[in-house]
Amino acid sequence: MRTPVQVRRADAGDIDLLLPLCAEHAAYEQLAYSTDAGIDDLARALATGRLHAWMAMDGETAVGYASATLDFSTLDRTIYLHMDCLFVRDGWRGSGIGQLLWDALRAFACTQGCRNMQWQTPDWNADAARFYQRLGATENRKRRYVLSLE
């Protein structure tokens, strides 16, 4: 009998599990991704609590992850959870893992006193849009910009 996938908090010791998921996530979203830079920064962010992350584990195999930061909204005048990533590996999608990761994020946001959660997803990702709409989320149309400072 197969053990159900478990979601647990990730920490700096999970970098070797997290990096391949990040690379797959970037490829899925058609983003440029480097496996060389920023590894120490990622570990430090996890270790200091600047970044919060969760791993979906099938035994010793990482099959998905979610990450978030706590931020403050000037317009809402309150703290909110910014979900940076929610990703489930190909072959595991549609099996409830995204919901498990979402539940962990939501529970964390509630314990932190967040009034809401915010995130973005690519325009073309209709599956993600349907998932978020089923959760009761509403879409706030904005454009996201990135300016490289390097």
What is the CATH superfamily?
Gcn5-related N-acetyltransferase (GNAT)
Largest sheet: 5 strands, mixed
Name the average pLDDT: 89
The CATH architecture category equals: 3-Layer(aba) Sandwich
Portion in beta strands = 25-35%
Summarize the structure.
The protein is α+β, with helices and mostly antiparallel strands.
Description of the molecule:
With 150 residues, the protein is of the alpha+beta class. The protein has a single domain (6-134), classed as Aminopeptidase (3-Layer(aba) Sandwich). It has helices at 15-28, 39-48, 97-111, 126-134, and strands at residues 6-9, 52-58, 61-73, 78-88, 116-118. A 5-stranded mixed sheet has the order 1-2-3-4-5, sandwiched between helices. The N and C termini lie far apart (50 Å). The model has no long low-confidence stretch (mean pLDDT 89).
Write the layout of secondary structure elements.
Layout: E1 6-9, H1 15-28, H2 39-48, E2 52-58, E3 61-73, E4 78-88, H3 97-111, E5 116-118, H4 126-134
Parallel strand pairs: 4-5
Antiparallel strand pairs: 1-2, 2-3, 3-4
Provide key terms for this protein:
single chain, 150 residues, alpha+beta, Aminopeptidase, 5-stranded mixed β-sheet, 32% helix
